């Protein structure tokens, strides 16, 4: 059998597995483009979790009570854990953590655009948990069925934690919306600023999405950007109503025939500007990551030294 024939046979077997809903595991044969596309998506997802700690981290010293502070701290720590699971899943595809970090810090790899918006008030902690984690869950529930085993398994645990994050955000919003008129205004302002960027988290329209067609065929993505965004729009409308707040989308209208809400258009120019590096906080987020990474170098060095010592001792005993 020629090498081309062998590759085509491997490709057929790979697609059979995908179509039979079997998971692809790290040691299985996979097309190079499948591997690269997965590394791209999983590593960018990991970067989003880690960079996403910054807007909320800034509010740890400003939480209005000890209880709120403890909850926020634990939520932010969960995000660090999500980053870890995801970097580990990406490493099974043959890329190192250092390479991924370098891609992030040099600006080659993206992370979710939403984290380039500033968090200005305590209301933003509510809006981030409710809307940002809320949008993340809608996307990640479908990723629990992604075709790559380590990514799918990581998603199951991440989704459980994200649903707690979403509830804690909504709880903050409920308290503010039922509080004084100043608190209600703060909740409304946070909703107004975070609603549209949350819709952008689902990516460009399907017709503009460079990776969707192949990712859907390979079952890396299980639902398209627009379908997931629609789910989020539909579920959020009744949550806004329950809070007694005004919907930021003045064109939002229930469409009986479609069984979904019709909505106004996203400002795509803003989206492209932010992912091109020109959002409010892009520079600040990367500079902070680089600083924290450099300051943590001694921990990584200590770990390597400890492991080398341990291995040397084991070799001596053997
Ligand atoms: N921001 O062809 P597509 C969280 C890029 S986790 C920045 O449609 P794809 C938890 C895209 O990468 C949030 N870039 O791409 C949390 C691609 O660029 P490339 C993260 C974006 O991959 C909460 C180009 O545009 N979740 O929030 C964005 O098929 C609170 C073309 O786009 C995930 O990453 C964007 N919004 O679909 C943490 C979920 N949208 O790579 C802390 C996994 C698109 O060619 C606090 N990822 N781009 O240079 C996915 O499901 C997909 O990657 C999509 C994009 C849906 C994000």
TrEMBL record:
Superkingdom assignment: Bacteria
GO molecular function: phenylacetyl-CoA 1,2-epoxidase activity
Keywords: Oxidoreductase
GO biological process: phenylacetate catabolic process
GO cellular component, one term: cytosol
EC number: 1.14.13.149
Protein name: 1,2-phenylacetyl-CoA epoxidase subunit A
Organism of this sequence: Billgrantia kenyensis
Name of encoding gene: paaA
């Amino acid at each position: 059998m020629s090498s081309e024939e062998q590759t085509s046979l491997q490709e057929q077997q790979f697609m059979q597995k995908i179509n039979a809903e079997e998971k692809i595991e790290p040691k299985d044969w996979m097309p190079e483009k499948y591997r690269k596309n997965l590394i791209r998506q999983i590593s960018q997802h990991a970067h989003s979790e880690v960079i996403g700690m910054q807007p909320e981290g800034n509010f740890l010293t400003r939480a209005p009570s000890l209880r709120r502070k403890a909850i926020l701290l634990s939520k932010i720590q969960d995000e660090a854990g999500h980053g870890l699971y995801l970097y580990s899943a990406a490493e099974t595809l043959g890329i190192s953590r250092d390479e991924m970090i370098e891609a992030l810090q040099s600006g080659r790899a993206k992370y979710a655009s939403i984290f380039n918006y500033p968090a200005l008030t305590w209301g933003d902690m509510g809006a981030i948990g409710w809307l940002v984690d809320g949008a993340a869950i809608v996307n990640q529930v479908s990723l629990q069925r992604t075709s790559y085993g380590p990514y799918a398994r990581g998603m199951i645990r991440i989704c459980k934690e994200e649903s707690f994050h979403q509830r804690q955000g909504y709880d903050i919003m409920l308290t503010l919306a039922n509080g004084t008129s100043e608190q209600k205004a703060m909740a409304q302002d946070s909703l107004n600023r975070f609603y549209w960027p949350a819709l952008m988290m689902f990516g460009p329209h399907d017709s503009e999405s460079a990776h969707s067609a192949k990712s859907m065929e390979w079952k890396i993505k299980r639902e398209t950007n627009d379908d997931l965004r629609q789910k989020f729009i539909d579920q959020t409308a009744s949550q806004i109503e329950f809070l007694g707040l005004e919907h930021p989308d003045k064109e939002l209208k229930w469409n009986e025939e479609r069984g979904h809400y019709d909505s106004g258009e996203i400002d795509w120019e803003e989206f492209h500007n932010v992912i091109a590096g020109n959002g409010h906080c892009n520079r600040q987020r990367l500079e902070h990551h680089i600083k924290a990474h450099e300051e943590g170098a001694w921990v990584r060095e200590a770990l390597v030294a400890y492991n080398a010592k341990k291995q040397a001792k084991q070799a001596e005993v053997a």
